[in-house]
Amino acid sequence: NSTINKIAAGEVIERPASVIKELIENSIDALSSFITIEIKDGGKNYIRVTDNGIGISPKYIELAFLRHSTSKINGVDDLQSLSTLGFRGEALPSIASVSQLELITRTKDNIGGVRISINGGQIIEKNEIGCPIGTTIILKNLFFNVPVRQKFLKSDAAEASNVSDIVYKLALGNPGIKFKFIKDNKVILNTPGNEDIKSTAYSLLGKEFVSSMFDIEYSGDDIKINGLVCKPSFTRGNRNHQYTYVNGRYIKNEDITEIIEDLYKTLIPINRFPVYIIYINISPELIDVNVHPTKTEIRFSNKEALKKILSNAIKSTFFNNTL
Ligand code: ADP
Ligand code: MG
Q: Do residues 166 and 27 touch, judged by C-beta distance below 8 A?
């Protein structure tokens, strides 16, 4: 079993940033409103994620580290209307199999919590402990038992920058959650967690960025869109600041890029790209999210309808603002 977990870890867990992604997504799924992420040495030697979510009840703790055990799915039908980020039950067992991990967790129904230590997939200690409601996971020495993987890791700075990228994307996608990111003992990021897109984008991307953007908004029965699109003068030489979130999930989707870039084509020079942050909330039946194991790609069942709605939302923003 521990071998299977190590193999699975090869697919899901490539580097510190992939660990961070899985842990933060678990915290989001646990309905946290405050998530702290801490790394040292690019995450190679130390990773901590602390949340104030629902926690794991004592009798399920060991289960959480079993492969394909998830609390988020009950039957095959659930796969169709998935609203949580995780559902495969692979992340925790994979991460635990390739690191030295400590988990501290408490639910609201318990006056105390549980602390469990796992070393390369083996539980080495478990005891009761007083702690706040929520979950903390501390990871040391990632890939200590998989030397080939360790060798594949880049410099501390490069790994830290990958981690940072993931944290920023998840923080921007979840303006209702307060994110704090600490890197080598320094606080790098602190989002307000107040649902407000502009103040969240301010804390992540700066004042100039926010003041160069227009709001967009559309509200229909099956689909709601809001976000920020840039003034034509604020376009970039690359696509690095194009963010799309569908039902809270950061995604890459060529349809959306194309729809938005087409609208800007008459307004901006060639080889310049619009900057945007788009949040789409859509009935889960109208999308297919299960196309890729890392779940960053999705398909829309009605591309034409999406095009119409998104184009109109942006056009009316252009119309209402001086460009
Ligand atoms: P998945 O997210 O696909 O369900 P994981 O391996 O990531 O699988 O997590 C296994 C289970 O552990 C989850 O289904 C959840 O019940 C529990 N869990 C993991 N992280 C947390 C957390 N931060 N707060 C509460 N429960 C958690
Ligand atoms: Mg998960």
A: no
Contact present, 153 and 147 (Cβ < 8 Å): no
Q: Can you tell me the distance from the alpha carbon of 180 to that of 194, in angstroms, rounded to the nearest whole number? A: 14
Domain topology for 212-320: Ribosomal Protein S5; domain 2 (3.30.230)
The ipTM, to two decimals, is 0.99
Nearest to 196 by CA among 74, 279, 105: 279
pLDDT at 321: 84
Residue 80 has pLDDT above 90, yes or no: no
CATH 3.30.230.10 domain span(s) along the chain: 212-320
- Given the CA of residue 49, which atom of ligand 1 is nearest to it? 23
First to last CA, the chain: 60
Long-range contacts of 294-297 (CB under 8 A, 24+ apart): 294/12, 295/85, 295/249, 296/249, 296/250, 296/251, 296/252, 297/251, 297/252, 297/253
**Which pLDDT belongs to residue 197?**
95
What topology is assigned to 2-190 in CATH? Heat Shock Protein 90 (3.30.565)
Q: What is the pTM of this model?
A: 0.90
**40 pocket-lining for ligand 1 (C-beta < 6 Å):** no
How does the average pLDDT of the chain come out, rounded? 90
Please report, for the chain, how many H helices and E strands are present, in that order: 10, 15
Which pLDDT tens digit goes with each residue over 227-284?
999 999 999 999 999 999 999 889 989 999 999 999 999 888 889 999 999 999 999 8
DSSP letters, 35-51, are: EEEEEEGGGTSEEEEEE
- Among 26, 47, 52, say which to mutate for ligand 1: greatest number of ligand atoms within 8 Å of CB: 26
Closest residue by CA, ligand 1 atom 18: 26
**CA–CA separation, 104 vs 16, rounded Å?**
20
